[in-house]
Each structure stands twice: as C-alpha cells, then as structure tokens.
Amino acid sequence: MRILQNCKLRDIAGEKMLIVKSNGKLDFTKVVLMNSSALLLYNELKDKSFTSADASALLVSSFGIDAADAVRDSSNWLKSMTKAGLITE
Prior knowledge:
Layout (H helix, E strand, L loop, with lengths): L1 E2 L3 E6 L2 E8 L2 E10 L1 H10 L6 H12 L3 H17 L3 E2 L1
Antiparallel strand pairs: 1-5, 2-3, 3-4
Helix pairs in contact: 1-2, 2-3
C-alpha cells in the first residue's frame, strides 16, 4: 500500500495533523491527528510502498514496544488513514 499525496502535514496550536486536500484545497473537515507514533509512520512511509507488517516493525524498532502492541497501533493508524482517504492498496 501507499500513502496518497493529497494531504498536508500542519502544526496547529502545537498539534500535528494531516489535512486532506479536496479539489485542490485543504478540507478542514477531513483531519487526522498525529501522535508521535503516527507521525513517525507517516514520515517514514510517505514516499514508499509498505505493508502493515512494515508499519508494525517500524514501531517495534523505533519505540521498543512488543509486537502485539505494534500490530494494534499500526492497525489503528492504517484505519484512520484509510478512513480519511489517504491510503491506497
């Protein structure tokens, strides 16, 4: 899968968020809030093809969490990104 390029990463009031572009304009009704793990996944995976296993492995290697937590966290991130229309298979 890949992260689509139809979004902008913004820092608003100290919060990192992805704002989806719609018809060439930012659509503030479609926003994904980014915690530290979501931001890491976005920054590391935005320019390449990846699998859910790649995302989980990145969390394990970066944060030292166990595999089950990494699978859960990366799955939640993928669901949020897919719901916002930011992931393609």
